[in-house]
Amino acid sequence: MLPMRDGVKLHTIALSPLLSSKKKWPTVIDRSPYGAFNTELLADLYLLFDFAAVSQDMRGCCQSEGNFTVWHADEQDGLDTVAWILKQPWSDGTVYQIGASADGIAAFEMARGHPASLAGQFIIFATAEARRTFYPGGTYRKNLIEKWLEGTVPKQAAEIIAHVKTEEGPSAWWDAVEIKGDQFKAIDWPTVHWAGWYDIFLHGHLYSYDGFQERSNSSGQHWLVVDPCGHCQDASRYFPHNLIAGRSILPVLMGIQLFQHNLTTSHVPEHVKHVTFYVMSTMDNTQHGNYWTSLDNWPTATMTPWYLQGDGSLSPTLPTAATTASSSYSYDPTDPTPSNGGNNLLMACGPLDQSAIEQRDDIVVSVIRLNGTSLTVPYNEYPSEFSWYFS
User: Fold this and answer.
1) Are 206 and 128 in contact, with CB atoms under 8 Å apart?
2) Whole-angstrom Cα distance, residue 365 to residue 13?
3) What is the number of other CB atoms lying within 10 angstroms of the CB of residue 19?
4) Does 326 score more than 80 pLDDT?
5) Which of 133-147, 275-289, 342-356 has the lowest mean pLDDT?
6) What is the pLDDT of residues 292-318, one digit of tens each?
7) How far apart are CA 252 and CA 232, in angstroms?
8) Is residue 359 in some structural domain?
9) For the segment 353-379, what is each residue's pLDDT rounded down to a tens digit?
10) Looking at the domain assignment, is residue 63 inside a domain?
11) What is the mean pLDDT of residues 171-197?
12) Which of 11, 84, 109, 253 has a CB 3.0–4.6 Å from the CB of 63, allowing a cystine?
């Protein structure tokens, strides 16, 4: 029960390799709300590669004391835990961090404190964008937030939910658990990021990778893999090529090599480059998609603006005064818009048919016509971020 700076004790397990000639080891840490026999086991994987492993229940979770703070205590708790590791006789003075999902968010939080001894991170399906996770486009994400809290910290969930609903707009409360802008400059170690196109944290993870790779002190030392699914393993059946149940072993190998100081442009699994991703398509289209590609950086997009028209269509032609009209809808927060699929957790996910939901009277639908093919686009799910990109 490791005491933090405020006296709260966190349940912590430290393991050393069973068969090793060393007396001191680099350490891999995983901090989690899920417990020692869940995602914290990711740190134990590195025991096989002659690392020590430290797993810790986050504040207010599982066997740790205190209350869950929606990651507000995780920067300091992470730093305190690293400071303790460095004082141990079995530590060689270097620490690495792995984290998936909520554990990955904890990794981003510790990165905010930029401990000097942190030598690398492997971050899986996570985000450094807090408010967007709870309020994507400004809309409260009820199903994801409430079911996750009720399942993870059931005795604290009601109080946390009530508070989160008072933090609808941008505020210092969200700023305290985000990395953005100039804050990326303090990142001074290499990372591997594993994201997913249908992952709940897609935008935040890609934004965070860009900040690490382009704006940090360790610019150019970061790697990204984007699979089709992320958390959304139900969608793996739609993307069958070059996948094993939606997963790729590639980022796992990269995470191991990163911590072994072997992940360089000349020594990387499959000779991949810094950005590797699955090219999406319909299930039976292998000519224009359903394969992996690897690039030095994201391809440069050619942007074409499209405009909402008075008849509900979208067009690259700017509306004139003669064609201007409006559409409106009434939104009732007590009757939230459901979803048959998408970037979801704890419900159906993936590229599923939304046409029945589009018949509701609290949704406005626009139509894009490309080469004679109509695409129906509901645009009130993320009302402040209505952007579509065609290259």
Assistant:
1) no
2) 52
3) 7
4) no
5) 275-289
6) 899 999 888 888 888 877 777 778 888
7) 18
8) no
9) 888 888 888 887 776 666 555 555 554
10) yes
11) 95
12) 11
Within a domain: 371: no
Residue 206 domain-assigned (yes or no): yes
Count of domains forming the chain: 1
∠ CA 264-111-178 to the nearest 5 degrees?
125
The counts of H helices and E strands in the chain are 9, 15
Cα separation, 304 vs 302, whole angstroms: 7
Give 139's contacts (C-beta < 8 A, 6+ positions apart). 381, 382, 383
Tell me which DSSP letter residue 125 carries: S
83: number of Cβ within 10 Å: 13
- The range of the structural domain enclosing residue 102 comes to 2-295
pLDDT score recorded for residue 271: 84
Question: How far apart are the C-alpha atoms of 119 and 247, rounded to whole Å?
Answer: 26
Question: For the whole model, what pTM was predicted?
Answer: 0.89
Q: Report the C-alpha dihedral over residues 293, 294, 300, 303, rounded to 10 degrees.
A: 30
Q: Calculate the average pLDDT of the chain.
A: 88
CATH of the domain at 176: 3.40.50.1820
